[in-house]
Specification:
Elements lengths: L11 H13 L22 E5 L2 E4 L4 E4 L14 H13 L10 H12 L5 E5 L2 H16 L3 E5 L17 H4 L2 E3 L5 H10 L4 E6 L17 H12 L2 E6 L11 H5 L5 E4 L10 E5 L1 H4 L17 H15 L2 H23 L3 E6 L2 E6 L7 H17 L2 E2 L14 H21 L7
Parallel strand pairs: 3-13, 5-6, 5-7, 7-8, 8-9
Antiparallel strand pairs: 1-2, 2-3, 4-10, 9-10, 11-12
Helix pairs in contact: 2-10, 3-10, 6-7, 11-13, 12-13
């Protein structure tokens, strides 16, 4: 064995801030950013700054960041061109008013030009805003109640996976179906025949802690056909895939057009904006029948950021570049895993790679979990920021050296993992 264990990172400042945070806010930090979603005591909790494809924590540790803020960073951190456009808007025009500014029309027109299903658009702030609005529009259009879902769609009552604080009557109106199984989807459509408002699906499956799956041949076409047969609105949740797999999203790349689409994350390279787009006939219910409003939805800084981000994505052909580089990354990752002897699955699409730990024959639950924890301990100590339960991303500003270094770190961590936890080791 040539790889050696690295020492634990110095995280004193991060841990002190976390203790302070827990007194100020429930849990200190929210949701998926909580330490138990990483390796507790090994990962930083507070960051200082980001640059290009890297982040630096409050203790000065520098990491290649392949989590990319959970997806918004499609270009890189501290993108000067976007920031300058935002500053100019702030200084010369302002950004928060009782009425809207012209940039709203320009951005919405641009979305309708880029995205296949988009005849109209509504700009909101977060992915959860967008998916929840899409569901409300679908219910308003169909006058039906039930939602069939596949994927992660946010924290709002209709879809949140932890049901604390949510009335059972609301949760019962949403039912999950299995990605890749048209039979399962049709079974649920039949069970709620005449009362399914919409089918909402992430066109590329990315279940938590499980392999990422591109759509099997004919699957999205089959979902489209079932939606038509049963009169349900088809919604593609493209919050992660939008502008990353293609400028027009997964619907462009895979050639299947939904009725509505939700976009966010990569739309403005980290500025908070998202959108619902779709067929005019369906979107029109939001003019009078379905209500949507927010003090901050019309704020223009995020719209300016989105316009400039789209400029760069088109000018530098970013989705194509990420797809090309990600294809090479996944191929090399597969070779590393195959040579390691560690029970792992390589999955994902080129912009969104992932590794998931399998349970080898003879493994017990503790061994399987310990193997995963040890691997991620070794990667973070070496300066690669990836997450055990969430797929990774390739950003435009990741250099070739960054990606080669990431692969080298993974190879070293797997070598150590194979030696410490041989496949088939029991508890």
């Amino acid at each position: 064995m040539s790889a050696v264990e690295y020492p634990k990172l110095k995280l004193d400042r991060s841990m002190a801030l976390f203790e302070e945070a827990k007194a100020l806010s429930p849990g200190g930090v929210m949701g998926i950013r909580r330490p138990y979603n990483f390796v507790q005591g090994e990962y930083p909790i507070f960051l200082e700054r980001g640059y290009k494809g890297h982040i630096v924590d409050v203790d000065g540790n520098d990491y290649i960041d392949m989590l990319c803020a959970y997806g918004p960073i499609i270009l890189g951190y501290d993108e000067a061109e976007i920031n300058e456009a935002v500053k100019a808007q702030m200084d010369r025009r302002g950004f928060c008013f009782s009425l809207v500014q012209e940039v709203q029309n320009r951005l919405e027109r641009r979305l309708t030009e880029l995205i296949p299903c988009a005849e109209q658009a509504i700009l909101v702030k977060t992915g959860s805003d967008a998916t929840s609005l899409a569901v409300r529009i679908a219910r308003g259009y169909t006058d039906r109640r039930y939602v069939l879902r596949c994927g992660y769609h946010g924290w709002h009552d209709w879809c949140v996976e932890v049901h604390g604080g949510v009335p059972e009557e609301i949760s019962a109106l949403t039912e999950e179906f299995e990605y890749g199984s048209l039979d399962d989807l049709e079974e649920k459509l039949v069970a709620h025949a005449g009362d399914v408002a919409c089918i909402i699906i992430t066109p590329v499956a990315h279940p938590l802690a499980k392999p990422v799956m591109a759509p099997p041949p004919g699957y999205l076409e089959g979902v489209r056909a079932l939606a038509d047969r049963y009169g349900a609105v088809l919604v593609f949740d493209e919050v992660r895939t939008g502008f990353r797999v293609a400028m027009g999203g997964a619907q462009e790349r895979y050639g299947v057009t939904p009725d509505l689409g939700t976009f966010g994350k990569a739309l403005a390279n980290g500025y908070p904006i998202s959108a619902v787009v779709g067929r005019r006939e369906i979107m029109q219910v939001a003019e009078k029948k379905v209500f949507v409003s927010s003090t901050f939805f019309p704020n223009s800084l995020e719209m300016v950021a989105a316009m400039k981000c789209l400029d760069i994505l088109e000018r530098e052909r970013v989705p194509e570049a990420i797809w090309r580089r990600g294809t090479a990354f996944l191929e090399k990752l597969g070779d590393i895993v195959a040579a390691s002897g560690v029970p792992l699955s390589v999955s994902g699409i080129p912009p969104m790679p992932f590794l998931t730990f399998d349970r080898a024959e003879g493994d017990g639950e503790k061994t399987y979990r310990a193997r995963r924890e040890y691997f991620y301990t070794q990667t973070i100590r070496r300066g690669l920021f990836i997450q055990p339960y969430h797929h990774w991303y390739i950003a435009h500003r990741h250099t070739d050296a960054d990606l080669e270094r990431a692969l080298g770190i993974i190879a070293e961590a797997l070598e150590l993992t194979a030696g410490k936890f041989p496949a088939g080791a029991g508890d």
